[in-house]
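Retro notes, item 3 of 5
We never archived the inputs for the adenosine-5'-diphosphate complex last cycle. Fixing that now. Sequence and ligand:
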Amino acid sequence: MFKSKLFLKAFSGMTVIIAVFSLTTSLYLLPAMDRHFFEAEERSAKTILDNVYFMAKRSWLFLENYRESAIDARKREIQNILQLAESYITNLQAEVKSGRTTEDEAKARALKELRSFKYGHNDYIAVSDYRSVLISHPDPKLNGADFSRVKDIKGTLIVTPMVEKAVQFGEGYHTYWWKRLGEKTPVEKLSYCKRIPEWKWVLITGVYIDDIEKEMQTKKEGIIEELRQTLRGIRIAKTGYIYIFDKKMNMIIHPNQNIEGKSVPSMIDPTDKKPFFNKLIGVADNDQPLHYKWDKPDDPGNYIYDKISWVRYFEGFDWYIGSSVYEEELSKNSTVFLKKIISVTLAALLIAAALVYLYVKHLLGPIARLSHVAVRVREGDLTVQSGIKSDDEIGVLSKTFDGMIEQLRTNIETLDNKVKERTSELEIAVEKLKTLDELKSSFLSNVSHELRTPLTSVRGFAMIIKKRIEGVIAPRIQSLDEKTDKALAQVRENIDIIISESERLTDLINDVLDLAKMEEGRMEWKKEPIDMAELVDHAASALGPLFSSKGITFVKQMSKGLVVIGDPDRLMQVMVNLISNALKFTDKGSITVKGRQEKDFVEINVIDTGIGIMPEDLDKIFEKFKQVGNTLTDKPHGTGLGLPICKQIIENYRGEIRVESRPGKGSSFFFTLPSMDFNINNQSLKNQIIE
Ligand code: ADP
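Structure as it came back at the time:
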């Protein structure tokens, strides 16, 4: 199949089209998909980061809510306490008003009562005047202490803001850092203050909220642990992860146990020796991630692998949440997928090629079969048939072709039979003709022989009669009378005709006999060297009188040493025949005989300026008894056997005779004869030639 050019063309053409199609598609699609995959992975990395961010935010909000409600509960608690204290003081003031007690005594009772009042975790009520001087405090050292300028460890004024709020608004809250009773380290304290305007007092009570913070802290730790567990299960791409560190660069969550929970500000980027975490903080909430080189767990210390980190800052917890992933992992999925696509494409290409192969084979198989059959037919095998019977154009073609072969075979068979028939008919006819020809030849030579003897007598007696008339009768009856003179002249003329006609008849008979002899191979050929120039001279001198009587010039142009071996009489016969024919058909001008050596033969050329020969007659004149021209009007001048005899003689020597002629201009007869081989080792022959 692969030898078929058509198949190769169709197969490669279709395969190339499919290949180009799939290649352009994949060349366009693959990079786009690669990009798409990378971006998708990048997006998912960011999305994970965002999700973790929101998880942190939710946890923070939860903590904040918790703190607020816890504080609210405390606020309500201390408000209630001061309301209680206020109503107690209001009762005392009512007693003063009703005169049951004095104001001073009432104040002293109130202060005493308040000083000893305890609730909660050793919590108490203090009283300040409008100048922030404590007029009551459970700690006796602070009794009467001026707090107008006293600040807590964070620099916040402690009492003054409360007095101001109370004087201005009647009540207020304030937080500051304060030591618990009997303890050394200050903790955060939430205080509530209330004004007692009649006495220009400000009641102050507070609860320590460090327990809330503690609880918050425990809760926060729980949240961090929960987050840690969650993040442990999250992977970005293959080995990418989420980490969290705070503003103080404490690593809060990190999959690497070595740095989790540690302070990492000193960690540096090994590629440029700059603090690494500052860089991460630098890209926080940027659109652009941090690109850097890092090592791999299975190739530690080799900082050549591209990594990406996106970082978000979460204010609530003061956290930097980062996601970190190897760049190659982002494109890994796409690489895997691309590999799959490429292999699927290749497989599809192979399958397509196979299908194309089968399809083209199916399509071209009949054509191949058809061309094979055509070749066989051309080689002559008419028994083949394509035998294809599909219903498409190829089927029609094959059916027609098979029909044509069938038709051709029957035609050739019929033709063969006819040719056979004709051949056998022809063979019979040829046989008949041969016998007829032989019969004719023997008849002709017999008749000629039989005719020659009486003809000799006729001619001989006519000559004698002529002699007698000229010698005896004519002198005696000279001018006897006019009638006798006329009769004598008539007799003389008739005798001449008898003589010339009997001579012509003798010539004819001689020619017929010569020809018959030659045709039957009975002619005896002498073998002598003949100088062609001499031969031409002899012929010309024999015909000399005819030349002078017709006034025609004879020209001889013969090369020297044209010698052939042959029968001089026969070659003379050829020469005389050609020259006398030339004379016969030429009325004015010249007759030229040329002779030249041509390789190993001699060519003689007899040229006349006579009437010439019509082209259609050129072949006929060498046939027996063919005299061309109008034989009815033109008196036949010869026997019509001259040229056939010449042909016989020349061909006997394996020479050739032919003619060229232009009617009205003249004819030119050529004949060739093998020249004598001078290498013949025959001294006597050579001597003869030299003579
Ligand atoms: P014949 O004896 O009639 O000349 P040939 O066989 O010699 O017979 O010639 C046959 C015929 O060829 C002639 O009758 C003549 O018509 C033609 N022929 C031969 N030689 C010449 C010539 N030199 N010029 C013109 N016609 C020629």
